[in-house]
Amino acid sequence: MTLIIYGIMEHILLLLAFFYIIDKKPSRKQLLLYIGIIVAPTTILMYLTPQYIAIAYLVISAHLLYYYFERTIFSIISCSVIIVSTIISDYFSMLLQPTFSKVLGSSGTLALTLLFFVLMFTLLIYWYKQYMYRQFQALEPPWYIKALLVAILLSTIVVVYMNIFDTRDSTSEIILMNLVIQISYFISMIVLSSLLILYMKKRNAIHFQEMEQEQFLHYMSELELVNHDMHKFRHDYVNILLTMRGYLDDNNLEGLRQYFHEHILKVEQQTLQHHLMFMQFKNIKIQELKGLIATKLITAEKNGIVVNVEIPDLITSIDMNMIDLARVIGALLDNAIEASECIEHPSINLAIIDTVNGAIVIVIENRATLEGCNVHRIFEEHYSTKGKNRGLGLATVNRIVHQYPNAHLETLCEPGWFTQKLTIEAAVSSSAAAASGTA
Predict the structure, then answer these.
(1) Of 55, 35, 37, which is closest to residue 45 (Cα–Cα)?
(2) Which residue has the higher pLDDT, 269 or 82?
(3) Where is mean pLDDT largest: 72-86, 257-271, 372-386?
């Protein structure tokens, strides 16, 4: 009876912990798949086969099903952590079970053991989500780091299960020894994961500095070209006015209009547009953000996309980590540019506004056909209307924004336009600002 209760409890915790980590509610289909693929077969195997076969099936099926739910390597990592946390919590409760039995007798031992098991498991999962899962997702480690983590966690499960059998009938000393071995292995895994996080943070910071320098050099190069074109325009404007004099002397307004639009405006419009855009950039006092936006929009303009920029206020600080902000803005601009390349009369509008309450509002909109646009699904991993192996940019944006309580992203699909509005509120306290990182 005790084994059945433990089995039911562990199945429930395996399911709830996974969806708690990914911040989603399980759908009816996912619940049915979980019962049909994991719960029912594991229960049958537990009675018809040796215990290690049932446990092996549980571990393998859980990893495969959770990967099917999310289609990301983090689902495999999370599943491994959940299983290891279940085993450690189980061992802790088993170790304290004799003590509970002496204090409460047989009547309350099971309830208190289960309660301690749930509390221990909850603490481990909460710690993993707050201090490991979110950091790894935010850092986006390369595939070889993810593969190493999966290998470490799977090997942990194998090592742990090698000495799990028959422990319920073992002495407290054996249980304690097994627990020490498992905790030591678990701590080693935590230390290694922490070192990987530190490595990824330094790696991302160096990469961001290199990208920032490259974008700033590109910005300065384009600025020099704009200044050169404006000097040339000022030098030639007298000659341009003289060419118009003949039309005025002859009172040929129709000819003047045609000459102006075809020979003056058409030739100098790009120079004036460039100058106007760079005049707007001067209000961004955050060099990293200025270089990123300028680089992206200059690329868009060179690809034949009409770019309009509106930055009426001085932007001196934003209460968001600069690397995270750069990844969000970069992904949104990349999506806008990519969507504009396959439509007629492409256009991108960018506005950055400092509101009276201290919030920064960044609006990016682009012309789009919006066929099949689904606002509720575009932020899902691997979902895209542009083909296979796409849909990672907005999923990353969604993860980053959700890490900041003071940030909110609003998406609008309107006739002919696709709009992203990012609002970053001022930090409510110094502690919040320190946690978020002030740009």
Answers:
(1) 55
(2) 82
(3) 72-86
Task: Round to whole Å and give the CA distance between 363 and 348.
Answer: 10
Least Cα distance to 274 among 216, 228, 314 occurs for 228
CA dihedral 63, 49, 110, 178 (to 10 degrees): -70
DSSP classification of residue 284: B
DSSP-derived secondary structure for 313-367: S-B---SS-HHHHHHHHHHHHHHHHHHHTTSSS-EEEEEEEE-TTS-EEEEEEEE
Over its C-alpha atoms, the chain yields an Rg (Å, rounded) of 30
Q: What gap in Å lies between CA 415 and CA 368, rounded to an integer?
A: 8
Taking only the tens place, the pLDDT of each residue in 302-353 is 788 888 888 888 898 899 888 888 889 988 998 889 888 888 888 999 999 9
pLDDT, tens digit (0-9, with 9 covering 90-100), for 261-284: 666 655 555 555 666 677 778 888
Q: Which helix (H) or strand (E) holds 413?
A: strand 407-414
State the Cα–Cα distance between residues 1 and 7, nearest whole angstrom: 10
Q: Are 61 and 92 in contact (CB under 8 A)?
A: no
Task: Give the E-state strand segments of 160-313 in sequence order.
Answer: 306-310
Q: What is the layout of strands, in order, in the sheet containing 407-414?
A: 306-310, 347-354, 360-367, 417-424, 407-414
**How far is Cα 348 from Cα 329, in angstroms, rounded to an integer?**
14
- Using pLDDT thresholds of 50, 70 and 90, give the confidence band for residue 393: low
Give the H/E segment covering residue 109. helix 106-128
Contact 332, 366 (CB under 8 A): no
Sign of CA dihedral 260, 261, 266, 269: positive
Min mean pLDDT across 36-45, 148-157, 219-228, 327-336 is at: 219-228
The C-alpha torsion from 83 through 84 and 86 to 87, rounded to 10°, is 120
- In Å, what is the CA distance from 354 to each residue of 202, 360, 405? 31, 5, 18
Residue 73 pLDDT greater than 90, yes or no: no
